[in-house]
Specification:
This protein is α/β, with parallel strands linked by helices and 234 residues long. It has 2 domains: 6-123, Response regulator (Rossmann fold, 3-Layer(aba) Sandwich); 132-232, Winged helix-like DNA-binding domain superfamily/Winged helix DNA-binding domain (Arc Repressor Mutant, subunit A). Helix content is 35%, strand content 22%. A 5-stranded parallel β-sheet has the order 2-1-3-4-5, with helices on both faces. Strands 9-8-7-6-13 form a 5-stranded antiparallel β-sheet, with no helix packed on it. β7 and β8 form a beta hairpin. The chain is globular.
Amino acid sequence: MDDTPHILIVDDDARIRQLLSDYLRRKGLRTTTAADAASAREKMRALAFDLMVLDIMMPGEDGLSFTRALRDEAAHIPILLLSALDQAPDRIAGLSSGSDDYLTKPFEPEELLLRIQALLRRAAPPPQAGHAIVRFGPCRFDMQSGELRRDGELVKLTGREREILRILASRPDRPVPREQLTPPGSGDNPRTVDVQINRLRRKIEADPSAPSLIKTVRGSGYILTSGKQRSHAP
């Protein structure tokens, strides 16, 4: 099998499934479709996917519930949610469920493609000359693999959380503006960055309500308080 990214499209509307599948195939991607969460689970047991395009409004287990379940099961697949709900609270609910991006309907197919390409780039380990490890509090973060451990236990991260942590960890003890934590062209705003930060805090902080590792810099952004400088893995 080649290295062409394989996309799982989950939508209860057969016409939309086929249109998205045909378009992405023409753009050089491999696709598999599923009509609901149960069917998607079956496909995921049989095949490995690089990204999921998931509609929120589905009968039975909806997209938000499915996303939360996948994150609870420690599935790392990047998830792009599709929804006709376009208000800020809807976007925040989607991102809070564990998704990596949120696109409102109707949308241009080219925008969907660009967002998929951006998520695939974020999910890929960045090329690095060294195997840099950043330690902060009880945590150990591998910059190359994106693996985070807290007290030796593996912490499951979404692709978006991993990207934000890489940016913060590349500048330990220095403030990073919110704008630099927002992917170009993603449509994210400072509020959605705050949602991602709060999710990270719940995973690494002893007390997320009084964070000591990822601190807010008023009027600017966030700072990762490492207490240690980078080292290199043996």
